[in-house]
Each structure stands twice: as C-alpha cells, then as structure tokens.
Amino acid sequence: MKHCLFLAICAFVQCKAAVITDGKIIEVNERPIVGILSQEQSFYLHGKFPEENYTSYIASSYVKDVEKSGARVVPILIGKDRSYYKELMKKINGVLFPGGATFFNQSDGYADAAQHIYEIAQELNDTGDYFPIFGTCLGFQLIIILASGRGKVENRADCYSYTNLLLIFSSDFRSSKLFKDAPEDVVQILANEDVTINVHRYCILDSNLEAYNLTVDWRPTSYGYDDNAIKFIATYEHTRYPFYAAQFHPEKSSFEWKLNKNYAHSMNAVKANRYFMDFFVAECRRSTHEFADAAEENDYLIYNSPAVFTGVLGSAHHQCHFFEPRGVVSG
Q1: Signal peptide span per the entry (predicted)?
Q2: pLDDT tens, 258-282?
Q3: Quick one: 24 and 167 in the same domain?
Q4: Are residues 47 and 4 in the same domain?
Q5: Residue 159 is a catalytic residue
Q6: Rounded CA gap, 320 and 301, in Å?
Q7: Share of the chain above pLDDT 70, in %
C-alpha cells in the first residue's frame, strides 16, 4: 500500500517532493525564496550614511531568521509601481513585512509597497495560487490597517510595550492554522515564560477588528498585556488566506544583541521563537513559483547587498542591508 501511494505521488508531481495534507497531495518546494519588504531609513541610520542617502534598508535579523528556517531571501524595494511587485511575486514564494520605525503616510514607501503586495497576494490566492504573507510588529499592524481600507484614521491603538512577555492563547488556539501543529513544549514555553520580545507603541485590539467588521476574516490566536495593562492581540491569522502576523519580534532572540535592550536570549526563547519562521517558511514551501533560471535568481538574491555591521554605530539593529543610494557613494 505504501509503495502504491509513493508511486501515485510520483506520478502526480513527477517525483518532486510532496506531502499529504488533509487527504490532498501537495507539492513541496525544496528551494523556497522569501521576499522581505524594505523600508525607509530611520533618521538615526540616515545620519550614519548621509553621503549614500540610501532609499531603503532591511535589518539583517529578518534575513537570518528566514535563512535559518531553510529559505533564501530576495529584498523587495519600495517606491516601485505595481507591475514591479506583481512580476516579482511570480518568482518568489511568500513575503515578510518586517517591523521597523517608519510611518504609513510616507510617499511611495513601505506602506504603499505593502498595499500592492497585499492586494496581489489576495488575487493570487483567490485563483488557487498559494501565496503566504507574514507580518512582524509594524508589519502586523499594517496588515490590519490595509484590511481596514487604509483611511486617514489608522485602525490601530496606542500601546506601550517594551518588554519580554508570555503569550495568552485564545481558548481555541489549537484549531488555528498557526498553532495546530505546534510542539507542546514550544506552546508551554510561550504560555509560561517571558520569551516574546515586544518593542511597540501601537497595537491592534479586538475593538479594532470589531470596528471595521474584520472578525469574520481575521482570527486572534493569542494576546498580551502592555505596560499599562492594555490587552492587545499578539498573533492573528486570516481565516481563508495564508496570512499570519505576530506583534512581537521572533527574530530578535537569536540575532539582535544590543546590551541595553534586555532581549530574551535563553535557549527556550530561541527555541520557541524559531517556531514562527519555521512555520512561515513551511507555508512558503507550498508555493511553486520560481525564477526563470539560476542566473536570474542570483541577480535578485540579497547576497548582492552584503550586511553592514551597524550595531557598532549604535543602531538597535546588529546588521543591516542597504539599497539604492540616491547620493554620492563614498569610497
């Protein structure tokens, strides 16, 4: 029987890797590539590279977090027209919206690019083309703002959370896509130890979902309390699309080292936080998009923009990748 099943799978996917999920044979991409959206430089970083005047950057911790889970990274640039994002998304297998310190009303920036990506990802999934998105912190908030219609009033609340927290799981979290297969030891760490790293002054509350009639499409799966005892959503997922987000920073426990930040770096913190990108990359493996050939792939990969050691310059990010200098490049 097992032999027959193997032959059936091979016949279906021409001997490419496959798994059976919910009784369906699903092709698995063993060379996933995740796009990470860049964003405008912070005022602090801009001051460290005034001559280069870079258009955007990505903190290397997000890149490493994706790579440790078995994927490669393509940077997604801001300030492009919709066709750029549409064409690029035909070649990659998912998109990460990282956290950061940018604003959503900056012209041709992070939020504008994310809106193109979000809408194109909806279109892809509506046609049966599996395409996941994961948002972290600022990206977590932006996804809900995009789902709300991105009006003049941003659909998020003031919060103040700059500490490590445990997760308060929703009563039905085990039936969610994000947590249904999470190992019990990971769940116990998240539920009982302060291992999720929070660095945010805005958040999404249940009332933000209710005010914009988002409770049918968006499902909170865990919560936290900020420094003023405000209960905020810590993780959520879309009920139909493979869209997920975390208000905290899973990447920081392994890859951000600024001494005065007191990030959780214990083995349990590293283990539990690793789960989130492992999950997301597994979702990206369900996308079969690919570049035309290895040469085209190589042209897009983030290795073309080596990481700069910005931690030594006082940045909160240990390393960063910078893109599209608008000034005169020194040296």
Answers
A1: 1-17
A2: 999 999 999 999 999 999 999 999 9
A3: no
A4: no
A5: no
A6: 15
A7: 91
